[in-house]
Structures are given as structure tokens and as C-alpha cells.
Design goal:
The complex is a heterodimer of chains A (519) and B (240). Chain A has 519 residues and is mainly α. Helices cover 72% and strands 0% of the residues of chain A. The longest helix of chain A has 33 residues. The chains are: A mainly alpha (519), B alpha/beta (240).
Chain lengths: 519, 240
């Protein structure tokens, strides 16, 4: 019986070409165009215009404020800039590592039918990195501080410095991406998960030990960012040209280098995801009530998802450690819950109905009051956010001493008010703007990149304001003041949550949400 | 006041479903009786799945009469959901829950008696899912997912069984188990609606066939008339 060759020939045609940098860039542009077409054009243009205007404003306006470039504060800020530049690298690394290699330009499911190479994936993750409020805020803080530190007496220096810092942001992001792919590659090896966990513990322990020995600030001061800043301040002199040229070369080199671990990681299966999807679960008894059954199912959807578990840990531990290392007092700690709760909501809360995946259609056919389903989902979201906040406050409080009654009440009120505020906003957005999202991968997000920027900006603004209010109230003489002032905040958020619940009870609206998230 | 015959389990008259400007269903009439199985056939976008979603209480009708197991789907949605077992067209499973947890959720929300456990185990075995009963469904193949969706639809022995593409990507053993489940449902007096593109399997499982086109019913006939080459020609003629 004649048989055909059982192997494929080595590809020689154009379709079988190896992925080079040129091919990756062409594919990246194609994918970006594709994604841009799926975004609402008016809204996308508005967002890009707002980003450009805000960045230009942040990079210039502080230079014209009183005492910019001359006072003690400006000088101190200049001295702190190298530490700030090092901090940007640290945050870029942490953020990229936590998200398992950065965001996906094309989600995994629809992306699998396209020949997207690992270099394209790597470049896509780099391009998407700035579409994140945490990245944007640190970039704006760096540029704004630099503008205030040098003032406007020499426009050449200001422009040269900001251009150089822009390049530094690119270098920092590329370093973060390189580190993320490397860690992800290690994580995907046979014993990778425990190795990465040990490395994380080691890094944290080292940082705490250095802080205890008063060596951390010295270490940050010794970072090689000071020569870079000195070079950039020479603008437009020869040293500036050399520094900028070196930064540009470093950016290109690190971006190119990042493709190597990206390819290495891309060839391996994500171990923790595979373990989660193939492992057996110990069965539990039947839930005692419909409410308990709904809550149990929703909890499983949250706590068994890799992005949620990893994201929560980073969100809860990171700010707590920063507070410990920075020796923050209780009145400043009231700002932390806002940061943690906003970040937690961005893991799934802003599109809460996507948790069921395509199972949403079956769940919607079950005989249960829609209000009860809404309550269970909101409850599980609140639990998730409160547990993250509690862990952060616990870690941060280790060094802050015993709080006064007013500080304790202000902190408690701040956590509760912000959690309810964010749950109400998230549940409202989940009904008004549902998206189909697969949250299996650590790189997945519950909404498209531009929508995520919008959500994170709004959450950051509202929770920071609330945190500042309670930070002030922590200094009150009477502990009842923050408790009493929390009441109107809680009432307002509860009313918004009830409004979202009424919307969910509308059959047509609910059908729209269910059909969209399960599409 | 809608008039429904005594053994009429699914009563649909002039059903319209609109999503914005798109009319997904444009005047479907349909009746299915106790102990009867009806196949819904038609091209992609004919309105089969949307009709099933309305009958399952997942999507509200824009216009028309829809009565399922004696309950108006618009005013008594919860009662309809209690009476119906629904296998959706795609997915249908919560990705991070195990098959057993799916069964538990359904049992609790439907307030099933303690016998549901043995029935659930038996169904999982019949559909060859017994060894993955405690594995989360995100790692399931498409066929395994379809089989579990059928198990979930029949667990509570519903009065009306709605199976949307139950044979899609399912192996012969799964097809056989689904056929048995349909036959069991008919034998105990349930009305069954099966939406599929697989004509031969549809006529094997059902006694009657309704063909939808452009959101409306264009023909109803016995399954016998849809069988074989002649049936294929007749069906082909109804699609254009």
C-alpha cells in the first residue's frame, strides 16, 4: 500500500519564513491596526489626544510654578531624581513580572489562528505597557518632578532633560519586559514555580534586611542613575549627546535582547495554568442555600484563576512592603487601600460578569432571582478587595506602631468606604460596558487596553480623593469624626450599587450582558 | 389570554426577537407536545439558537406569545427556568468549576431531592465523564464540554428539554448517550427540541422537523420526510 511522507518538508516558501525583527515589526503594525479598528474611533482619538496633552503639560507646566528650579525644594527634588529613575525600573520589573510577560496584543483564543511569533508578542507587550495607569502615573511624576527641579531658565536644559527621561522610560520598560520574560521562562520549567517563589521571598527578605540595617537608601543612591542624570542636565552639550545616544542604543539593545527570553518562554507551557486546569479538586458537600451555592461558585471562579491570585498577592504585598520600607505613619497609610482596591477591581471587577466565561448562558438559564445572583457577585468582589486591603494594612502596620483611636477608625472607614465605592462602580460598569474576556492567562485583562486605562484613571482619581479625606480625618481629636463622616460616603455608594442591581434585574439588559460576555 | 392545548409543552406564536436594528427572529410559530421531539433545522443565522434562548428564559422576546410548560416566558420566567433543561449552543460551562460543582449548583438552585447525587453520578458515567468529575472544565475538549452540557440539561428530568447543537464535535459514544437521553426524556413525557446542523442525527432523534429561514419557520414535516437522499434534497430546497 503506498503511503505518503509522514513528515512535513522544511518550509522554503515565504509563509514558512523564520521570524526576524523586520517581520515582527511588520506583524506588530498589522496587529496594532487591527486592534485600532476594533476600538471606538472617536474615543480612541480622544484618549490619545488627552495622553499627549497631559504628558506635555506635566513635562513643562511645573517648570513655571513658583520656586521651580531655584528653591530648596527644587534642589532636594533634583537630588531625589536618580532614586526616582531607579524606582521606575523597579516598578516596571514588578509590574511586568506579575502579569506574566506583559499584556497581550491579541487575546489567546482569537490569536491562536494567526501566526503571531514570540518577537511580535514581545514588541506588542512593550507597546501596550504605557496603557496602564500605574505606568502613566510614575512617568508623569518623574517628568513633573524633573520640570520643577530644573525650572524654565534654560529651555534647552528642560527640553533635553525631558527628552532624555523619555528615553529612560523606554529603557526601564524594556528592562522590565526582559526580566518578565526571563522569570516567566524560569517559571515554566519543571521546578520553576517554587524557584520563582523562593527568589521572590529572597528579594523581599533582602530589601527588609537592608532597610533594617539602614542600607537601602544608600543602595538606591548608589544606583547608576546619577551619571545618567548628570549627562542629561548638560543639554544641549556634548555630554548630553553622548548620554542620549547611549540611552537610545541601550533601549534598542534591551528591546532586541528581550526577544530571546520571550522565545524561550513562548516555547514552554505555562505550568501553573496547566496544573490548575488538569488538577483534581476535592469535592465538598452541597451548599446549604442558593446564596451559598452562588457565592461558592463565584469564589471558585476568582480564586482558581492565575491572574487573580498572582495579581492580588502583588497588589497586597507590594504597597505594604513599600510602606514598611518607607516607614509610613498611620495617617499616610489611609491612602493605601485606594491603591490596592482599585488594582484589585482591575483584575476582574470592572467586567465582573466575564467570570463565568461562556458558562454565563447556562447560569442564566438556572432558576434563581437575578438580584440574588447580583448580590453574590458583588459580595465575592467585595471579599476579594477587602482581603487584599486587609493584608496590605496588616503588613504596612507592622512598622507604623499602635494607631490612635482616630487613626484606627479613619483607616477602617477608609477601607470600607473605598471598597464599597469601587464595588458600586465596578458593578455599574460591568452592566453598562460588558466585554467577552478569557481570564485563564496571567496576561489577560477583563477589558480592552484603552478601556482599562479609562477605568484605572477613574478609579485612581476617586479613591485617592477619598483616601486623602480620611488621611486628614486620621488627625482628628475624636475617633467618632471619621466614623460619622464615613456614613454619607457609604450611603452614596450603597445607592449607586442598588441602582446597578435594579439595572441587572431588567431582563433585556441582562440578556445583552450575558450574550456579550459569552460571545 | 393565551390558549394552550393540554399536552402542548412549547407554544410559540409570532415570536420576534430584535437586537438593536437586527431582527434575529421574525415571526416563528412552533408547537411541541409532551413525549414529542422536534428538530430545528436551518442555516447559520436562521434564528434557531435565539429561539432556544427565548424558550430557556435567557433572552426575553421582543414580541409574540411564548408559553413553556404552561408558563408565560415573559411573566413567569423563573417557573419556565425550573421546567426547562437547556444545553446552550456554545460553551455552557463555568471555566473554573468542576462538573460535579456544576451539578451541585444546579441541584441547589433547582431544590432537587437527595436522589440527584446518584442520578448525577450515573449520567456522568453514561457520558464517560466520571473520571473527570472533579477536574475544572477549563481544560476540557470541545466534545467533553458538549457532553457535560447535555448532562446538566437532563439532570433534573425537565418537562422541556432544549438541546442546542448537542452533537457538535461529540464522539460516537457521546452521540449515543445523547440519543438515549432524548429517548428517556420522551419516554417520561417531556417535550424535546433539538437544534442542529446534522440532519441525519436530527431525524434519528426526533419525530418531527421544523425548518427556519431568515428568522421565520418555512416548513414543518415528519422526520421520515427528511430522511435519506430525498430528505436531503428537500432540505436543500428549503434553505435557499
Amino acid at each position: 500500500m503506498p503511503t505518503a511522507a509522514s513528515w512535513t518538508e522544511r518550509p522554503t516558501s515565504r509563509s514558512g519564513r523564520r521570524e526576524g525583527v523586520g517581520t515582527a515589526v511588520v506583524d506588530l503594525v498589522t496587529l496594532l491596526r487591527f486592534r485600532a479598528r476594533t476600538a471606538r474611533r472617536g474615543r480612541a482619538r480622544g484618549a490619545i489626544a488627552a495622553f499627549v496633552v497631559l504628558t506635555l503639560a506635566v513635562a513643562t507646566v511645573p517648570a513655571w510654578t513658583p520656586h521651580a528650579g531655584s528653591g530648596d525644594r527644587a534642589f532636594n527634588l533634583l537630588l531625589l531624581l536618580p532614586t526616582g529613575m531607579a524606582g521606575v525600573v523597579l516598578l516596571a520589573v514588578t509590574s511586568a513580572v506579575a502579569s506574566g510577560g506583559g499584556r497581550e496584543l491579541m487575546p489567546r483564543d482569537p490569536g491562536q489562528i494567526f501566526p503571531i511569533g514570540s518577537t511580535t508578542d514581545h514588541l506588542g507587550a512593550l507597546v501596550l505597557t504605557p496603557l496602564n495607569i500605574a505606568w502613566l502615573l510614575q512617568a508623569w511624576v518623574l517628568l513633573g518632578s524633573a520640570a520643577y527641579a530644573v525650572g524654565h531658565r534654560s529651555l534647552g536644559t528642560l527640553a533635553g532633560l525631558q527628552l532624555g527621561l523619555g528615553l529612560w522610560l523606554v529603557v526601564a520598560t524594556a528592562i522590565g519586559q526582559f526580566a518578565a520574560w526571563t522569570i516567566e521562562g524560569i517559571r515554566r520549567t519543571a521546578h520553576g514555580v517554587p524557584i520563582v517563589r523562593m527568589l521572590t521571598v529572597l528579594v523581599i527578605a533582602t530589601a527588609i534586611a537592608m532597610q533594617t540595617a539602614d542600607l537601602l537608601v544608600d543602595a538606591l543612591d548608589a544606583a547608576p542613575t546619577s551619571p545618567v542624570l548628570i549627562g542629561l542636565l548638560d543639554a544641549p552639550g556634548p555630554r548630553w549627546w553622548t548620554t542620549v545616544l547611549l540611552l537610545a542604543l541601550a533601549a534598542v539593545a534591551i528591546v532586541a535582547l528581550g526577544a530571546v527570553p520571550a522565545r524561550w518562554a513562548g516555547r514552554r507551557l505555562p505550568v501553573d495554568e496547566v496544573e490548575l486546569e488538569t488538577g483534581h479538586r476535592r469535592p465538598r458537600g452541597l451548599a446549604r442555600s442558593p446564596w451559598a451555592a452562588l457565592v461558592r461558585t463565584d469564589r471558585a471562579s476568582v480564586w482558581r484563576a492565575v491572574p487573580m491570585r498572582r495579581g492580588l498577592l502583588v497588589l497586597a504585598v507590594g504597597p505594604g512592603l513599600v510602606a514598611v520600607l518607607g516607614d509610613l505613619r498611620w495617617d499616610s497609610l489611609t491612602l493605601l487601600p485606594g491603591l490596592v482596591v482599585s488594582g484589585g477591581a482591575l483584575l476582574f471587577g470592572v467586567n465582573a460578569w466575564c467570570l463565568d466565561g461562556r458558562g454565563g448562558r447556562w447560569r442564566e438559564s438556572l432558576p434563581v432571582e437575578p438580584g440574588l445572583v447580583f448580590d453574590a457577585r458583588a459580595w465575592v468582589l467585595a471579599e476579594f478587595l477587602l482581603s487584599a486591603s486587609a493584608l496590605t494594612v496588616l503588613i504596612a502596620g507592622l512598622r507604623a506602631g499602635v494607631p490612635t483611636p482616630a487613626e484606627f477608625t479613619a483607616m477602617l472607614a477608609s477601607v470600607l468606604v473605598i471598597a464599597l465605592q469601587v464595588v458600586a462602580a465596578s458593578m455599574r460598569w460591568s452592566i453598562l460596558h460588558p466585554y467577552a474576556a478569557d481570564l485563564r492567562s496571567a496576561r489577560a485583562t477583563p477589558a480592552p487596553p484603552l478601556a482599562m486605562v479609562g477605568y484605572s484613571a477613574r478609579l485612581a482619581a476617586s479613591t485617592t480623593v477619598t483616601g486623602l479625606v480620611f488621611s486628614g480625618l486620621a488627625r482628628a481629636d475624636d475617633w467618632r469624626v471619621p466614623a460619622l463622616l464615613a456614613v454619607p460616603f457609604l450611603c452614596w455608594s450603597a445607592a449607586r450599587l442598588l441602582r446597578a442591581r435594579r439595572r441587572w434585574s431588567d431582563a433585556e439588559r441582562r440578556a445583552d450582558v450575558v450574550l456579550t460576555v459569552t460571545a | 389570554m393565551v390558549v394552550v392545548e393540554a399536552d402542548e409543552r412549547v407554544h410559540v406564536r409570532g415570536l420576534h426577537v430584535r437586537f438593536g436594528r437586527v431582527e434575529a427572529v421574525a415571526g416563528v410559530d412552533l408547537s411541541t407536545y409532551a413525549g414529542q421531539a422536534t428538530a430545528l433545522l436551518g442555516r447559520n443565522g436562521a434564528g434557531k439558537s435565539t429561539t432556544m434562548r427565548v424558550l430557556a428564559g435567557v433572552v426575553p422576546p421582543s414580541a409574540g406569545e411564548v408559553v413553556v410548560a404552561g408558563h408565560d416566558v415573559r411573566t413567569a420566567t423563573l417557573a419556565v427556568k425550573r421546567a426547562v433543561g437547556y444545553c446552550p449552543d456554545i460553551g455552557g460551562l463555568v471555566p473554573r468549576a468542576t462538573p460535579w460543582e456544576h451539578l451541585q449548583l444546579s441541584a441547589r438552585l433547582r431544590r432537587l431531592g437527595p436522589s440527584w447525587e446518584s442520578r448525577g453520578r450515573d449520567l456522568l458515567e453514561r457520558f464517560e465523564l466520571g473520571d473527570v468529575a472533579h477536574r475544572i472544565t477549563a481544560g476540557f475538549s470541545h466534545g467533553m464540554g458538549r457532553r457535560l452540557s447535555v448532562v446538566l440539561a437532563v439532570l433534573h428530568e425537565p418537562e422541556v428539554l432544549l438541546l442546542d447543537e448537542p452533537f457538535d464535535g461529540v464522539d460516537p459514544i457521546g452521540v449515543e448517550a445523547t440519543m438515549d437521553a432524548i429517548a428517556d426524556a420522551r419516554a417520561r413525557g417531556a417535550a424535546v427540541l433539538v437544534s442542529t446542523h446534522l440532519r441525519e442525527l436530527a431525524v434519528q432523534a426526533c419525530g418531527s422537523v421544523s425548518v427556519l429561514r431568515g428568522g421565520a419557520r418555512v416548513a414543518s414535516m415528519t422526520a421520515e420526510e427528511m430522511r435519506g437522499e430525498e430528505g436531503a434534497r428537500a432540505y436543500r430546497g428549503l434553505l435557499d
